[in-house]
Structures are given as structure tokens and as C-alpha cells.
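Design request, C-alpha cells follow.
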């Protein structure tokens, strides 16, 4: 319950349920732009429509291993069980940072700060069944990691194992130079550019697996979905990064896998 948001306290978790992602609205930029426009349109109707659109339709979401909870600022909370989520279509709107569900049930969730994380979490739940925890003590260590190859960067997480590490990507590979150039060009031209890429909650998923009875089969199942990579042997380089932490680096040709071990 420590990671259960305060606004969802009246929706107690089901047995074995764990939070994968939670997030709130992202509407201040739109709202400020709308307020500037009010100086040109000093009417009553337009401000009311703006309040409804920017504030009333936005809200907070909580995605757990069992369900999606959407709480709009105006209206009742919507709860979609995991089994139903698998039958719905997920549609993304990068312009308004929105995620929509279509099919037997229609749910629209606009102006989300973590819309990429919600998108990735929904995509993961549609293909993977999170295991039930059987222990409070994790059987393995999970650490954030980055796979680098030239200008190609891929964030994810690693599972520390005795014979090496296993890397689970959180999203597809991005060319940092190309994206930085496109963002700079968009800034000069006055065009906002957002990368259309889902981000999977791999660290939360691996943390669930670490507390199950049969860890290896669960790691293999998640690894097949996300195309995990096994990096064997000791790290090629390691060194302190301050605060009692150690940076570990594995290398295969021009590809490097790097992560920071937390303080013991």
C-alpha cells in the first residue's frame, strides 16, 4: 500500500495487486495558452468550454497488475479489469498526450503527463499476465540500465544474475542525434515534436517476478515478449560514481550496456 496514491485510497487493492504506473494530468501548458487567448475572446461561453475541455476531461490514472482506474476531474471513476483490457483497442494521441480505449467500452484519457507509460503498460498487460507474489523478499536485483550503440540509445532494466545480467528494454531504440536535430528544427520552426514511442514498466514487472516462487520461467516469458538480451560474464569496466554507488559496463563490439548499482 506504500505506493498506492492517496486519491485511490477509497479503492483498496485486490489481493496480490501491485501498482505498475500511476500518473496525473498534463494540461497546464494548454490551459495557459487558452488563458492568453481569452484576451482576444472575452466571452463567457469560450472560457466555460475551455475549463471543461482542459480541466474537466483530464484526470488521474492508476494502472496496476489487476486493473486500470481512471478518475476524471468531472465525472465518476472508471475501473477496467485486466481481462477486459485485453479485448479493447488502445489508441494514442500524441498531440494532446491522450490514451483512448475502444471496443465494447470506450474510455478517453486526455492530457496525461505519463501517456507513454500508460500506453506501454496497457500494451504489456494485453500480452502478459503478471504473476502473484509469494514472498516479500525479492529473489533478484533489478536496476535501471541503458543500452548504447553509437548514437543509438535504449533504456530498460537489468536483472543481476550470478553469471551476468539480463537486459529488458523499456522502449524501442532511439537515435539521440536524429531526435535532438528534429527537436531543434521544430523549435526554430515553432513546431512541437513528440516521439511516438511506448514505454513499458519493466522495472515494476521485474519487481513482481522477483517475488514469485518460479522466477526463471517468469523471466523467460517476459523476456520473449520484450526481446530481452543475456550479457554473460563479468563486467568489462566498473568504477565508483559517488554516494557509495558503482557504475557497471558490459561491452560487445560497439554496443555497451551500462547501469549504476545502488548503494549496498
Amino acid at each position: 500500500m506504500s505506493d498506492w496514491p492517496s486519491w485511490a485510497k477509497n479503492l483498496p487493492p485486490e489481493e496480490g495487486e501491485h501498482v505498475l504506473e500511476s500518473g496525473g494530468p498534463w494540461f497546464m501548458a494548454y490551459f495557459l495558452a487558452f488563458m492568453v487567448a481569452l484576451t482576444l475572446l472575452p466571452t463567457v461561453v469560450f472560457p466555460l468550454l475551455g475549463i471543461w475541455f482542459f480541466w474537466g476531461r483530464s484526470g488521474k490514472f492508476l494502472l496496476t497488475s489487476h486493473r486500470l482506474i481512471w478518475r476524471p476531474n468531472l465525472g465518476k471513476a472508471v475501473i477496467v479489469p485486466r481481462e477486459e483490457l485485453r479485448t479493447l483497442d488502445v489508441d494514442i494521441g500524441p498531440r494532446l498526450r491522450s490514451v483512448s480505449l475502444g471496443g465494447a467500452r470506450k474510455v478517453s484519457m486526455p492530457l496525461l503527463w505519463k501517456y507513454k507509460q500508460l500506453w506501454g503498460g496497457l500494451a504489456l498487460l494485453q500480452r502478459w499476465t503478471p504473476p502473484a507474489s509469494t514472498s516479500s523478499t525479492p529473489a533478484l536485483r533489478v536496476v535501471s540500465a541503458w543500452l548504447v550503440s553509437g548514437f543509438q540509445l535504449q533504456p530498460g532494466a537489468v536483472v543481476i544474475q550470478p553469471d551476468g545480467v539480463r537486459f529488458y528494454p523499456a522502449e524501442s531504440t532511439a537515435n539521440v542525434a536524429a531526435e535532438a536535430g528534429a527537436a531543434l528544427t521544430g523549435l526554430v520552426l515553432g513546431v512541437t515534436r513528440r516521439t511516438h514511442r511506448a514505454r513499458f514498466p519493466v522495472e515494476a514487472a521485474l519487481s513482481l517476478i522477483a517475488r514469485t516462487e518460479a522466477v526463471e520461467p517468469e523471466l523467460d516469458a517476459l523476456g520473449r515478449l520484450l526481446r530481452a538480451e543475456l550479457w554473460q560474464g563479468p563486467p568489462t569496466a566498473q568504477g565508483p560514481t559517488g554516494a557509495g554507488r558503482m557504475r557497471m559496463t558490459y561491452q560487445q563490439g560497439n554496443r555497451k550496456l551500462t547501469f549504476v548499482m545502488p548503494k549496498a
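Comment from the thread starter after seeing the answer: thanks! The mean pLDDT is 87.
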